Amino acid sequence: MKLCVFQGTFNPIHNAHLNMAQYVIDNFGFDKILFIPAAKPPHKTYDENFSIHRLNMVKIAVEGNEHFDVSDIEYKRNSKSYTYLTIQELYKKYDITGKINFIIGTDAFEKIKTWYKTEDLKNLVDFIIFMRDDNFDKNKLNYLSDDGYNYKFAKMDFIDISSTEIRKRVKDGSSISGLVPFKVEEYIKQNELYKS
Question: In sequence order, what DSSP letters do the residues of 8-22 get, joined into one string?
């Protein structure tokens, strides 16, 4: 199986995430995109009681797409959500063709050398990079290529949707229609998420 992983906080998952994943399916020939919500993200502050809501929203968002799946692998591990450990487990769990690929934004990829066991991780995955702004200079990442990180750029146009903006809109009482799938919007309302 040709597998691509989309790991993130997904707080909440939104339409740009889904469009990115579909772009990868349409353009890179993977059998499956595996969404992996980080239960305990090491680089972000998070509410542990809220983690299950993030997982539930991702499950709702990918329903009905035969190429999308969700893993709770990081929820079953009672420790920080380190990508290196997750990728190791995925190689054991699935019959992988070639290397696992990993969707990442330019902002996160610029910090990849700070990640846990990054020197080992770079040998396990190839990265698919999405621009986080329209004017990003790709040459800024040449030093990572020189250091043995294998990556390619997705040519999808930047979509300016952020989870931060969605949370702010919910708190302010503004509409988030069109930014998240309808069922995710309903889940946020029903569970009164992001109100405080």
Answer: E--TT--HHHHHHHH
Per-residue pLDDT tens digits for 36-94: 999 887 766 667 778 899 999 999 999 999 999 999 999 888 778 899 999 999 999 99
Half-sphere exposure of 2 (CA within 13 A, CB side): 8
Task: Report all structural domains of the chain as residue ranges with CATH numbers, in order of start.
Answer: 3-160 (3.40.50.620)
Token pair recorded at residue 85: 């450990």
The phi and psi torsions of 138 (rounded to 5 degrees) equal -60, -30
For residue 172, give the amino acid letter. Answer: D
- Distances 89 to 34, 73, 123 between C-alpha atoms, Å: 13, 8, 15
pTM over 0.85, yes/no: yes
